User: Which sequence fits this backbone?
């Protein structure tokens, strides 16, 4: 951490800052420039808040030097984390495909979709039983009935399952069924929830918030990791920008950057990232080309009748065609599929 | 809702859309333009999802006509909602001041601040006992001990209190102490939490998300209202934009717009809205000038020692000076204070 | 400027950076932390580009310490710049009102509006003769005929005039008529144009870009100032964000912040800042409350027939009512009007 | 265009709107919903401004149905536009590589880079002679000397050249040298400049603005096209968002979407799109995977000594390695290279 003093700062101001740095157990390193004095805070000051210095008289700016996350960082864990989800290996050279409907709507809808995506080449089945909906009047999911249907689909197809958990008190119930906890974009900074899943031993699929920076996203992963659960997958699913032609802006840079900053597996979600089924194909390929370890894609046998997110779901035959194209692409990128 | 067909849509495509509209219980109204056919969906279609039509063959675009919220709308409730918080009237001509520390840090810190803000003219005391922190290594709040201290400060000063609740299972505990539930920006779309506070009879202070549109913000208010709790205050606290010179961008337009769209009291939070104590004064006045019914301002007796958000807290004497300025301003805006 | 070395940087990497710093004529100041080495670049390094160091082996991050602008900064020019526009004093205690139609559409429209805004209390008349339009098929302005009409309206009302100049080669022509050059938001980083108006002695009204940071905005002012023209007014007119309920997001923080960072007069434009005439009143008051030295407001006698921007124009009688309210407000803020 | 009336609109309000629609030469089509009346404007109303109706009493909202561009649209021109740049075919199945330094800095720097990128497989040489710089104190380019050097490099390598033109009066000079005009991101809405290059017969490489929507970008292309110049290439180069870990956010969705909306060739610029040379490789591949017809990449033999944009330039050997990887990728995407 570096503290930049104002042009007008007095010697006494500098002195006060240095004393506060030392009182916190760090060393202060002064550097006298031509227009500003700069004070370096020497030591592992990740827990220190910049505001503790910003409030002192004569301070202009406080700059963090260290990334605030540690367990998620490649600095301290250079090798890729590999996670075994009931036999599906995530984070290795093989690209992982998660597919299924946005919401579990009925036993038949789920089983039909599960068989179709399995057939097409999916590795893990997704499906929402508890749904975060921006309207209180919209379909909120089937709840535990949905979880039972997911378990049945797993039985039938052999695919592990992933489903969303929305509150700390539901972690225990959902944990009885699911192979992977999904933390949705709106809960990326739901800290009690992150703490709760961090205490389990079930892998966590953490979606980036639509307005979370890469740094904040990895800090949310750090919450789970610091609770003792080292099995975290991070998923880019589009951020909110001024562009309205697409539902979100898939941040392809973030996929490439997170592969450098962290050892955790990085996924892309072209369904939410674009909000338009016509764009899923090209952006799914782009995610893989940028280095993603896997994809999450929404598939629905009858999208026009879907209770949620139909516009960004592929029909099973379109999904199958996309998988064939991805399989052509993977070897050209040094990956398997 | 209006469905715009593609230039290339076939008569059969139009037919299919019309049939789906009718199958959902609405009337379809066709309008044949020179380049596009447009189908109006007649009836209260707030619960319908645009994607149900976007997926149909030949559909180009689906446009919502009705605001998705109803209980929060001035269309159906033209008069301002006025909320009585233990004798403090919120939403009337008098401007309400909420002040206090970001976090409750100790009994003495809280009581010192409470007395100071009371003396300066605050109406309601704020203080966080459970704190949402982006780092798992940062101070997480005093929990129930903090709630006890808030209750004691209320006893001592006579001011009602407001504190944040972060998860559905904490609603019952926090509700035993607080006069107003604060829902933080990161929980604005925590739907299980909104549902939980919607079942109580305690007023809710709902902060806009840093990434939430005005429409989504009022939909989150609708969640609480539709649960039966009609006492909701909405607070603009800055949104996230490309500008980095301030922590957030206080959306002054949203204050003026929400006063037109909804009957609920609208507040401004210049502490979070700017992230810099030097900007609190001018932006607090701007909120009031734009029509806000009240302000939430962070005050700390020793900001440099604050455990959170010191950089955006005023010292008590600066807060007192600001209140004097606001009192000069209020009559020129037709308000009292 | 501070250069942060990677955790993994070798001694030779540090050596190379130090040598490059010295080769550029600066002193290097090393600070050895527990996890990173930091190298301070001592001297007025405003012209140095961070990328010159970012490319060197072992460099993690380069942080600018000094604001890149100097002539625009309060550090070097503490007192407010006051500009005399044909007898109208801008930047002093008195608030300045610029009003008029978006576009000059006809002699009668302009004269009718000019007389009305003069009567209501405006100080300077605005009107576009050359119009930047996002569609090549839209009305592009009357050109020199419009300039003639503006000059006639000045003659008739005694008000100085302001009009937009869109390209370097038009500076000479527009300069023969106008009292103030307006640089539109889309031209905020049109550097040849900034250079051209910087060579004149006519005051410049510089609108912030809808995508420009406060720092970039003041750098654009620096372009004009460094050309020798010290009469620059900076105008906040709304930035582009994810919010779509308003045309732009008026950045009220920027008004308060720029008053601290620069000595130049700061204006607000609630017409473009909101895009909705119903929001002009509350946000105009907010601009003044936040410290703006003046306002630019679009007024049109028949907005529904306006050739541009009718939705964000006030009718003359609504403008007159707003001026009366602002005159009540000004003294409560220590200003006159 | 659709006009939505307010809940409270009177019959007379509706009547006034209908009359105005008809006075403009369109037909009005009324649709009476349960809560709102909707008026469709029938006819090619691209030139109509929504504000002409938004100002009328009782109007709530005006929704555009037609894309405002026509010449750029696939609706009216289904086949891909293919452009021949001195023998290099752009917009066909073969992927085009534009490479070279950000700025032309010297004859030797340019020739060295030109030979290296030619050798590696580039098709067209880029280099800035006139540079838009956000600081008036930064290197502004070599001007006409730079153009001469580019011409010499073309002579020597056989590669066509592309260079930026920044103002209408420079179009004639730059046009004497260049094979393609580059319009930079900051000039995407410099309408006099778009008009000027639209009158030439030299292909135009139009960069998206860092805050331009896809629709606005294609409207800027429409400016050039409507001037008579049908040779336009559109380039996604990153947009400005809240994310600060990368210089811009490369909008991969926009590449996929523009390929659907327009027949013009679409390029990606991973250098500006990320601002970090370490991210150029993965995002270049992502652009191609998403359907881009070509790439623009900055290459500099000694990036640390570059006068601009060194941090986002590849060294020639890294560029050569990337080209080899792209050549492996192209066939898996049905492209050649």
Assistant:
């Amino acid at each position: 951490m570096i503290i930049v003093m104002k042009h007008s700062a007095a010697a006494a101001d500098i002195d006060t800052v240095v004393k506060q740095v030392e009182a916190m157990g760090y060393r202060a390193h002064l550097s006298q420039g031509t227009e500003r004095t700069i004070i370096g805070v020497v030591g592992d000051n990740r827990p220190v808040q910049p505001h503790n210095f910003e409030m002192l008289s004569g301070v202009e700016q406080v700059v963090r030097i260290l990334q605030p996350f540690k367990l998620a960082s490649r600095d301290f864990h250079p090798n890729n984390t590999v996670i075994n989800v009931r036999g599906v290996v995530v984070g290795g050279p093989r690209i992982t495909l998660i597919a299924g409907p946005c919401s579990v709507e009925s036993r038949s809808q789920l089983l039909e979709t599960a068989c179709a995506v399995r057939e097409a080449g999916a590795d893990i089945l997704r499906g929402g039983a508890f749904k975060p909906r921006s309207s209180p009047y919209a379909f909120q999911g089937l709840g535990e009935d949905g979880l039972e249907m997911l378990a049945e689909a797993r039985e039938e197809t052999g695919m592990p399952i992933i489903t969303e958990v929305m509150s700390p008190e539901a972690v225990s119930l959902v944990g009885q069924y699911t192979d992977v906890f999904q933390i949705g974009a709106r809960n990326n900074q739901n800290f009690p929830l992150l703490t709760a899943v961090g205490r389990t031993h079930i892998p966590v699929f953490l979606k980036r918030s639509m307005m979370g920076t890469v740094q904040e996203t990895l800090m949310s992963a750090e919450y789970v990791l610091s609770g003792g659960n080292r099995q975290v997958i991070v998923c880019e699913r589009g951020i909110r920008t001024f562009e309205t032609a697409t539902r979100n802006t898939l941040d392809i840079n973030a996929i490439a950057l997170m592969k450098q900053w962290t050892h955790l597996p990085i996924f892309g979600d072209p369904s939410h990232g674009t909000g338009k089924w016509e764009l899923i194909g090209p952006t799914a390929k782009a995610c893989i080309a940028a280095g993603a370890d896997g994809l999450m894609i929404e598939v629905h046998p009858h999208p026009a009748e879907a209770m949620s997110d139909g516009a960004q779901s592929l029909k099973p035959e379109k999904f199958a065609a996309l998988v064939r194209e991805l399989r052509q692409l993977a070897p050209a990128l040094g990956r398997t599929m």
